[in-house]
């Protein structure tokens, strides 16, 4: 058991028969009444985000999440196959459970698979990934002075806003939490 006073971003807890990750929290001490902790939680089973308030000092169960390093192999219809790098064991995840993560996954890419007991919860992406631009309008000389952006389609199908100087075939660093352009690779 862990006290809600010890919350920190990224902590996984068990509440209301669900496995939740703390995304944000705030300790509140009103002038009148008891202190409480306001938190923003993400359900690791279905991705739902919920705001929940706990009384200060309340105890919740800490969920022990194991991360296994795996390699994304290929899509098999609606299933996506991952292989454990040590045991060569393969698991399949349905596309519906990793819909957001698929925008960044390329074949042979290494990711962390989150496991709770024997249940596979999902894929944890690295903070940034390198993807190639497959389609964008050509940049026009002199356009960079305005500091504007244009849409670019990447090799996974993701569309991000990029500066005018980016061309088709360029490799870009993409932030996976915000699905945004960071820099050229």
Automatic annotation (TrEMBL):
Any single Gene Ontology cellular-component annotation: cytosol
InterPro entries: Elong-fact-P_C, NA-bd_OB-fold, Rib_uL2_dom2, Transl_elong_fac_P/YeiP, Transl_elong_KOW-like, Transl_elong_P/YeiP_cen, Transl_elong_P/YeiP_CS, Transl_elongation_fac_P
Any GO MF annotation of the entry: translation elongation factor activity
UniProt signal peptide: none
Pathway(s) annotated for this protein in UniProt: Protein biosynthesis; polypeptide chain elongation
Keyword Zinc (UniProt): no
Main location: cytoplasm
Domain annotation Elongation factor P C-terminal: ranges: 129-184
Positions of the Translation elongation factor P/YeiP central domain: 67-121
UniProt keyword annotations, A-Z: Cytoplasm, Elongation factor, Protein biosynthesis
Tree of life domain: Bacteria
Pfam family, one: EFP_N
Localization terms from the record: Cytoplasm
GO process annotations (BP): peptide biosynthetic process
NCBIfam families noted in UniProt: efp (TIGR00038), PRK00529.1 (NF001810)
Function per UniProt: Involved in peptide bond synthesis. Stimulates efficient translation and peptide-bond synthesis on native or reconstituted 70S ribosomes in vitro. Probably functions indirectly by altering the affinity of the ribosome for aminoacyl-tRNA, thus increasing their reactivity as acceptors for peptidyl transferase.
PANTHER family assigned to the protein according to its UniProt record, in alphabetical order: ELONGATION FACTOR P (PTHR30053), ELONGATION FACTOR P (EF-P) FAMILY PROTEIN (PTHR30053:SF12)
Family: Belongs to the elongation factor P family.
Protein name: Elongation factor P
Biological classification of the source: Bacteria, Bacillati, Bacillota, Bacilli, Bacillales
